[in-house]
Amino acid sequence: MEDDGILRLLPPPKSFCCPITQHLMQDPVAAADGQVYERTAIEEWFRRSRGSHRSPMTNLPLPTVLLAPNRALQRAIEEYLQCRPELVRKELDRVSVEEAVRLWSQELLSAKTAKNQDLLTARAALAELRQPLAKLREALAAGEQAAAEFEQKLCAAEAAVGAETTAAARGSAAPSAAQPSASPPGNSSSRKSRRIDDNANCVTATRPALAGGTQQVSAGVWQVFSTDFAFAAVKENGSVVTWG
Fold it and tell me: What number of other Cβ atoms are within 10 A of residue 231's Cβ?
């Protein structure tokens, strides 16, 4: 009993522990470098080396990756654990924690893979939307150009309509049937007299028989028409002035 108490105070022999994990080995195997490792630990080492098989202890290339089970060491470790049940519980707890960490890592990896897949799907959908968006932008630019051209044509049409309206107003202002008439020779001196003053650029007409005396027409007279009873002056701007 005293020996068992002393044994519990001592750490496990180093030969019972894997040099990679530093834990008691459950399935010890010998590698080509002469070292003994836990099988799962040395296999993981080879897997991560990606073809460059080197010794974990010496970092020298290994001629082979074949592993030889060490049954004698395995039995010695089992007998040792029978005397150290607390190490068995501790080892079980460690294995449980490692398994939990492994499962958690797998879940994280799965979530990351799913996220990457969702990201790839979103990128593909975005790539599909880029082409219709480019066509929509082209159609919008063409619509803006067509609207600008239509506005220019509308302005030109409004200007043409304005010019035609002005010309029509001038044409309607000129009497169509009236013709310049000369007073009869016998009545010219007694009925009216007309004088065009070129220097003053105006026309002055008088009728002694009518009240109002003399009327003066401003510059810009295009033509003067007269009848037996009245006068009409058509200006260059299309307006008509009558008197008599």
Answer: 19
pLDDT tens digit sequence for 155-190:
888 888 778 777 777 776 655 544 454 444 444 444
What is the distance between the terminal CA atoms of the chain, rounded to a whole angstrom?
A: 156
Model confidence pLDDT, tens digit, residues 198-237 = 433 434 443 433 344 334 555 677 777 788 777 888 777 7
Q: Is residue 238 pLDDT above 70, yes or no?
A: yes
CA distance 152 to 162: 15
SS3 for 50?
A: coil
| 88, 81 contact by CB (below 8 A) | yes
**Of 4, 35, 33, 1, residue with least CA distance to 18:** 35
Angle at 196 between CA 222 and CA 206, to 5 degrees: 105
pTM (2 d.p.): 0.39
Indicate the angle between helix axes 85-173 and 71-83, nearest 10 degrees: 100
3 state SS of 214: strand
Q: Which of 200, 203, 201, 199 is nearest to 226 (CA)?
A: 203
Cβ–Cβ < 8 Å for 205, 194 = yes
Handedness of CA 143, 146, 148, 151 (dihedral sign): negative
Is the domain spanning 7-83 CATH 3.30.40.10? The answer is yes
| CA 2 to the chain's CA centroid | 81
Query: Half-sphere exposure (CA, 13 Å, Cβ side) for 99?
Result: 6
Give dist(CA 199, CA 143) in Å, integer. 61
What does the alpha-carbon distance between residue 181 and residue 231 come to, in Å, rounded to a whole number? 11
Q: Domain residue spans in the chain?
A: 7-83, 106-173, 188-243
